[in-house]
Every structure is written in structure tokens, then in C-alpha cells.
Amino acid sequence: MAESLRLNGVHHTARPTWKLKETVEFYRDTMGLPLIHCVSARGWGADNHPDFLHFFFDSGNASTIAFFYYLGTSQPEHLIHHPRYDSDATHTAWRVESRAELLAWRDRLEGRGVPIMYQIEHEIVESIYFRDPNGYFIEIGTQVRPILPLDIADAELTMRAAIEEEQRRLSAGLGRLQHVEAIYQAKGAALEALLGAAP
Amino acid sequence: MSVTIFVADLAEFSPLVEAARGMAGVTLAPPRHGYWRIQAAGTLALQRKALGLRVALWNSALSGGIRGRLVEYTNDRIILENEP
Questions:
Q1: Assembly ipTM
Q2: CATH number assigned to the domain with residue range A81-146, chosen from the 4 options 3.40.50.11320, 3.20.20.105, 3.40.50.720, 3.10.180.10
């Protein structure tokens, strides 16, 4: 029955925090996400696990965002969030159902002193971006248009071009992909093969 | 050999197609398998302001695929030329 095996949205995502009060105040009070569950437990399991709090905020549609607060620990260097594009790749993006709602969230957050870093219309989603007290990157977005069959076919074509081009480079000792132009060219070649050469 | 830009037939990329319609020396073939084909004999140049594309889309404007060599891709201008 593998065909019928489906995930049904997000239960929770979780990240660690070393700022208990600020994190609760930000998600519960500033954003207005109800605090709906908290595990307060003695440390157990592997690796000398410390005592901890694991707490959950309701982010709508039965989804939650959760945090771990490890008692008696200091934040290790490798978990300090550095505000760079690669660290910010790990982020949470919530959905709202209209541009009016997106702008209302912008107003709410700015009104409560949360700087909005960007508002960007991408290909299928328009989003605002901001940070929580941990420095974690947060996005709220609204779908600009529905996903179409062409989006799915195009994504497959792009991935195939990128993977084949990278494998070709690796086989030739040229290393991993360096520039997106190589993907555009590989995809163009694939499309020309599919559609026929130019007249 | 000509220069080609393939453009996915999706609403956000339509400014590329509309711009190609008015360009001298450029042919525009309607979508097949979901892709418009914009072609020129030697060089194809696009200006961001003329297209009216926002920054995010300007930076994925060629994501449909190209034939030819990308000789310039700045914040304002894209130039494609024939392979040497």
C-alpha cells in the first residue's frame, strides 16, 4: 500500500534555545501563538542528557513549533546562530492565506518592535522575513498562485539537468557545480533535444 | 547557430515573453511541452528595467534553460551570444 502512504502536514519542528524567557515571550506574546504543551523532564537517555523543557506553540492547522531548553548547559559554539545565508537556510516558513493577512502580520510585528528584514515576491510565494530572539530566521508567506503541472515537470527537468551536469563534472575531475549557468545550459540542451533544433 | 532562451509558460515569467515579442531580430515560438522559445541569430540582450522584473525573478530569468554563452549577467542586463 505504498501508494497510499502520505504525510499529513507538520506536527512540529524543534530547535534548541538558551533564551527561555525571551523565546516564550516572543512566540506566545509578540506573535500570539498559544503555548499548548510543555514537557519538563529529568534528563534521560544517551549522552548524559541534561534535564530539559520541551515546549510547543500552536502555529495553526494542527502544526506547532517547539523548542528545547537544556538546564544547566551553556550554548555550544556550533549552535550559536550566525546570521548568514547558509545558516539561515534552516528556517521556519508559515503560511497565511492572503496578501492582506501577510501585510497584517507585517503591521503586527513592526508594531511590536520586530524589524521586518525583507518582503519579497518569489515565483510562487510572497514573504516577509524576521528573526526570533535566538536569531533564527522566520518567514511568513502567502502563495501567489497555485502549483501547476508545469511546476512539477520543470522541477524534475531542472533537477535532472543539475544532477547529470554535476555527475559529468565529477567524472571529468572538475568538481561540483560552480555556477548556475551550467545548469541553464544543460537544461537548454535537454529541451532542445526534446523539442527539436531551432529552425 | 542561434541563441535561445527557453521560458516556462508560467505567469511570473510572462514579462520575458512580452519583451521578446517587440524585439527586432528575435523570433518567439509559442509553448511546446510548456516552454516558450525566444531565439536570435547572434546576440540576445535583456534589460531588467524594460522587462519590469523584480530582483528575485530577474535572478532566475534564465531558469527555463539557454542555448548559447552567457557573456553578461549583471543587476541590469543579460547578454547571450553564440557559442564561439
A1: 0.96
A2: 3.10.180.10
